[in-house]
Amino acid sequence: MSAPLIWQLRDRTLTPGAPPLILGIVNVTPDSFSDGGQFRDADAAVAHGLRLVEQGADLLDIGGESSRPGAQPVELEEELARVIPVVRRLAALTSVPLSVDTNKAEVARQALEAGAHVINDITALRGDPAMPEVVRSYRAGVILMHMQGTPATMQIAPHYDDVVAEVADFLEARLQACRDLGIAASQVVLDPGIGFGKTKEHNLRLLAHLEELQRLGRPVCLGVSRKGFLGKMLNRPLHQRLASSLAAACYALVRGSAQLLRVHDVAETRDAVIVLEEMNRELRRPQG
Predict the structure, then answer these.
(1) 270-288: per-residue pLDDT in tens?
(2) Which of the residues are catalytic?
(3) For the segment 69-125, what is each residue's pLDDT rounded down to a tens digit?
(4) Cβ–Cβ < 8 Å for 23, 261
(5) Which among 127, 147, 233, 125 is positioned nearest to 197, based on CA atoms?
(6) If DSSP states are collapsed to H, E and C, what string results for the chain?
(7) The domain 7-284 is classified under which CATH number: 3.40.50.1820, 3.20.20.70, 3.20.20.20, 3.30.70.270?
(8) pTM to 2 decimals?
(9) Rounded to 5 degrees, what are φ and ψ at 54?
(10) Cα(198)–Cα(195) distance, rounded to whole angstroms?
(11) Spatial separation of the C-alpha atoms in residues 86 and 55, rounded to whole Å
């Protein structure tokens, strides 16, 4: 059995995959695809984050700019006003590590000053030239995601010759770029970007071969929660995609191809993870 991977976050070390970590989503936005507007108020966002911790979230991922298909960028001051008060209050109220979903270096810097531990960047540190230095200087954890295009354009006829190979090659290149910029590999988690510049067929292909990313030697974060390709498969609206979200996540966990799950439905995902862990424990138990 190979040694568990470690993820270094500023003042602590996590071991994703033993068991898988659950990253609970806290959207402080009016227009996110699943829960936009529900937690736009800071009080509501903080209460929601604490509720997710009670339900079993290992980390919280706080975002102030929607990355849904067709979304337009948010001005810096608006994103700061949405995110920083929530980070500051959650950092004072819980010891769970906080991730901030942003591609702006100034948002990342202020969030890390306010108590965040991770920067979750959908541009894989390419969107703001100052972002790598922020991550390096704070020794923050970072999630690098693959995305074809931008949120505004990514679902306009995405194309790949080999989606699995191209996503893996991109993430390998970004991992090496981090090393070259003084960011340790141990700080990095990789995200294939399900739904970001990909058709339903691309997403399914990636899920079926997600273990290909394990050759890169870093934990993989999977975000399939309530995604549109699941709705298309089953003709289900957002509020009826829990079962399909859990099915996709469990498929990846059983195959050992994901070590973190980024989810809206923390309690249900935690239940699924516990059952899978118990079954794996029984499978390893000596017979007789």
Answers:
(1) 999 999 999 988 888 888 6
(2) 227, 262
(3) 777 889 999 999 999 999 999 999 999 999 999 999 999 999 999 999 999 999 999
(4) yes
(5) 147
(6) CCCCCCEEECCEEECCCCCCEEEEEEECCCCCCCCCCCCCCHHHHHHHHHHHHHHCCCEEEEECCCCCCCCCCCCHHHHHHHHHHHHHHHHHHCCCCEEEECCCHHHHHHHHHHCCCEEEECCCCCCCCCHHHHHHHHCCEEEEECCCCCCCCCCCCCCCCCHHHHHHHHHHHHHHHHHHCCCCHHHEEEECCCCCCCCHHHHHHHHHCHHHHHHHCCCEEECCCCCHHHHHHHCCCHHHCHHHHHHHHHHHHHCCCCCEEEECCHHHHHHHHHHHHHHHHHHHCCCC
(7) 3.20.20.20
(8) 0.93
(9) -60, -35
(10) 5
(11) 19
Cis before 19? omega within 30: yes
Q: 193, 34 in Cβ contact below 8 A?
A: no
The neighbour count for residue 234, using CB atoms within 10 Å, is 12
